[in-house]
Amino acid sequence: MKFLLLCVIFTVINSEEIQEFQDSNLQFATDIYKQISKRNTENFLICPLSAQIVLSLATVGARENSAKQLSNCLYLPNDSVKIQSIFQKLNNNFDVTKPYQFSSANKIYLNNKCEIKSHYRDIAINTFKAGIENINFSETEKATKIINQWVESKTNSKIKDLIQKNTIQSNTFAILVNALYFHGDWVNEFGYSGDYKQDFYVSENETVSVNYMTQRNYFNYCYNEKLHAEFLELPFVGDDVTMTIVLPKDTHGLKKLENHISSVISPQRLAKSDALITIPKFKMESTIDFKQVLKELGVTEPFTEYANFNGITENGIYIDDVIQKTFIEINEKGATAAAATQMSIIPYSTPDVVFTADHSFIYFLRHRSVGVFFIGRLSRP
């Protein structure tokens, strides 16, 4: 039998276990970004955290070589008990409602003709806080609707139609889903920019006219000479979450910068600077098929009939697919928030920094404890 792993997107998160997860998150995010950037020439957005959660939910039920391949890819211990300990600590940091919203929800949809081992059921419920629901996969249209409605409800309707037509088969054993959601307001909101348009340099031969927003304030900033890139950090209310824009100095230097993605998402020596910043407003969605990516990262056996998930069931099951869908909106108010009208009038003097993101850049959202939970490329707003 097959079972599917599907990740929805969105999110944020100190003990020894949390530090271990932070390290694994950084390495996993680096590997995933490298693989996906090779396959995409346009915009994309991935959520390493969501993928880690749902893959870990499968890993604790894997055995022998299947468990080893999954844990190695995730940079987690090849020890189910240790992985459980990490996620018990990690889960304590979700479900934030103020001053920003940050939530993670897990669900196992189990074929109503199948059973899972009681020990795995306990781990799913108590460690991963996963709901378990029996479902009739023979009624594919109804099952698809049930799962998609749950995903929508957990992501404030930002992720729709995660399960596509023909995804579910009558013999599907189970579908594991993680849904993450983040919403935050900028500490320093942008004034309403209306139809302020400016060229964005997509390539050497192409520009597009896009809506920008601008403000002058004090921001954490640095120029990394080794990477030939500027780093600008935009904080959200609450002091836990930031969005960092990494802008190559060369207008067409994104590809060279992506060759050093591990250094890009590592902590930088930022300093408060008086900065006049101009960045594009944008909204985008991505759908990422993780199957081939994971195979290239060494996860091969779990996708074959040689897979060993005896911690879940004695029946022979393997992973059929891993799909992730993401959404992000950046505007004057913050991230995933409706636009607000505000105009700030301040005395003008020469700023220390003029930061104009008018060409392709990397951006990522980082939580001060967990690390990078979204990372993306914007090449065409």
The run of helices and strands is EHEHHHEHEHEEEEEHHEEHEEEEE
Spatial extent as radius of gyration: 21 Å
Which runs of at least 5 residues are low in confidence (pLDDT < 50)? 1-13, 337-349
> What is the correct CATH architecture of the largest domain?
2-Layer Sandwich
Q: Report the oligomer.
A: single chain
Quote the distance from N terminus to C terminus.
Answer: 42 Å
Number of helices: 9
From the spread of the alpha carbons, the general shape counts as elongated
- How many DSSP-defined strands? 16
Structure description:
This protein has 381 residues and is an alpha+beta fold. The protein contains 9 helices and 16 strands. α2 packs antiparallel against α3 (64-74). It is elongated, with a radius of gyration of 21 Å.
Write out key terms for the chains shown.
single chain, alpha+beta, Antithrombin, Chain I, domain 2, Alpha-1-antitrypsin, domain 1, disordered N terminus, serine-type endopeptidase inhibitor activity
Concise synopsis of the structure shown:
It contains nine helices and 16 strands. The chain is an alpha+beta fold and 381 residues long. The longest helix is centred in the first third of the chain and has 24 residues.
How are the secondary structure elements laid out?
Elements: E1 2-8, H1 16-39, E2 44-46, H2 48-59, H3 64-74, H4 80-90, E3 101-111, H5 118-126, E4 130-135, H6 140-154, E5 174-185, E6 197-203, E7 206-224, E8 229-235, E9 241-248, H7 254-258, H8 261-264, E10 271-280, E11 282-289, H9 291-296, E12 318-330, E13 334-335, E14 353-356, E15 361-367, E16 371-378
Parallel strand pairs: 1-5, 1-12, 3-4, 10-14
Antiparallel strand pairs: 2-16, 3-5, 5-13, 6-7, 7-8, 7-10, 8-9, 9-15, 11-12, 15-16
Helix pairs in contact: 1-4, 2-3
